[in-house]
């Protein structure tokens, strides 16, 4: 909001720039603290959720193949819950990254002609840092928690379940042939 006022006036003071840069430093510090505190925990949680989704999805498919609707529904409810949790986690990460990108773009738009050399240098350094390595949610520094990762996980789960179902079908066919 302050930046919109600055754009209207067209002038910016060194004091307001220092406040803005202080806010960016706080944002960076909070991001680092969040990564340190929740990184490994979030990474392990996501892996456990993915394993649960695969297990529940496979169970639902197997029970539907054998026309056991009640069992499929009982495995389907936790499946839906875990998918929603995973989606919300990654959606929050995506929102965080997009807000940080907006901050970097806003830094580009600051009129720096009337600023001192020190403030101008600090703005350029902060802008370069935000554009080269934007803040993001990276659990355990293994991956970025955003929508792109979520679609990758969904496609991997889909492929894995298809392979499991194919092996399950082959086992049931060979088991039937051996009984005959």
Protein architecture, described:
- It is a single chain.
- This protein is an all-alpha fold and 180 residues long.
- It has one domain (14-162).
- Helix content is 83%, strand content 0%.
- The termini are far apart.
| Strand segment tally | 0
Number of helices: 5
Largest sheet descriptor: none
Strand content: under 5%
Order of helices and strands: HHHHH
Structural class: mainly alpha
The number of distinct structural domains comes to: 1
Give the terminus-to-terminus CA distance.
77 Å
Question: What's the mean pLDDT score?
Answer: 76
Global Rg:
25 Å
Overall shape: it is rod-shaped
Write a brief structural summary.
Keywords: Cell membrane, Membrane, Receptor, Transducer, Transmembrane, Transmembrane helix. With 180 residues, this protein is mostly helical.
Task: Provide key terms for this protein.
5 helices; rod-shaped; mainly alpha; 180 residues; single chain
């Amino acid at each position: 909001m302050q930046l919109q006022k600055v754009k209207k006036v067209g002038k910016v003071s060194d004091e307001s720039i220092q406040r803005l840069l202080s806010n960016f430093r706080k944002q960076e510090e909070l991001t680092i603290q969040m990564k340190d505190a929740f990184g490994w925990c979030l990474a392990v949680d996501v892996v456990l959720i993915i394993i649960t989704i695969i297990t529940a999805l496979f169970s639902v498919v197997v029970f539907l193949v054998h026309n056991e609707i009640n069992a499929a529904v009982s495995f389907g409810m936790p499946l839906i819950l875990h998918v929603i949790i995973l989606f919300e986690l990654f959606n929050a990460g995506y929102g965080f990254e997009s807000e940080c990108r907006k901050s970097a773009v806003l830094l580009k738009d600051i009129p720096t002609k009337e600023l001192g050399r020190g403030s101008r240098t600090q703005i350029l350094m902060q802008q370069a840092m935000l554009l080269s390595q934007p803040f993001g949610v990276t659990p355990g520094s293994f991956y970025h928690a955003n929508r792109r990762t979520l679609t990758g996980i969904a496609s991997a789960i889909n492929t894995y379940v298809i392979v499991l179902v194919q092996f399950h079908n082959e086992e049931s066919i060979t088991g039937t042939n051996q009984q005959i």
